[in-house]
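Write out a record, focusing on structure:
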Amino acid sequence: MTIGGVAFDMKLVIFVTLATVLPMLDYYNHRLTSYKAYDRVIYYFIIPMLVVLLVFHEAPADYGFRWGNWRVGLAWTAVAALGMAIILWFIARTPAMQTYYEARAPKEILRLIYLNGVDLFGWEFIWRGFMLFGLARILGPGPAILIQAIPFAFMHLGKPEIETLSTIFGGIGFGFVAWQSESFVYPWLIHWFIVTFTMLIATGRI
């Protein structure tokens, strides 16, 4: 599409618009269900997936919705989980992290684990699936990995500073793992572990 002599790639317009508007709706608490985690599945998984199917008429697998190279994915998952466990053992015990998560973490451990998994499923699909693989077709994988990490990092504003500052690097790392494994599943597993482990440490349960 060309407006005023300027050419716009319509897919890129859709990617940028959704990556901006959906987090805003989430931030301003436009509730769709009784649980924030379920809202985020709708915002960050169902809506982008409907765009893939009904607007782009493409296969979900083209956007990382598949097992991909599971050997590579599981190897990265194991390495990342071990490395982050060591770091978080110390970082999650800082006063800022304890204060933040003690006020927000679910009291029941099984519920905490479950809601984190549901919540982060949507998060990982929109950034490491929809955005990453979509932008990679237009801009190439390198720029796509970097760009998808930007809105992801901004979504952490309001969390403890040490966590928020690290998320640009975490987002890039997640994007790299998704691209290498050809799937958003493995960044989801890593992110699920990181958030759950952080909450368990910060709230003194381990």
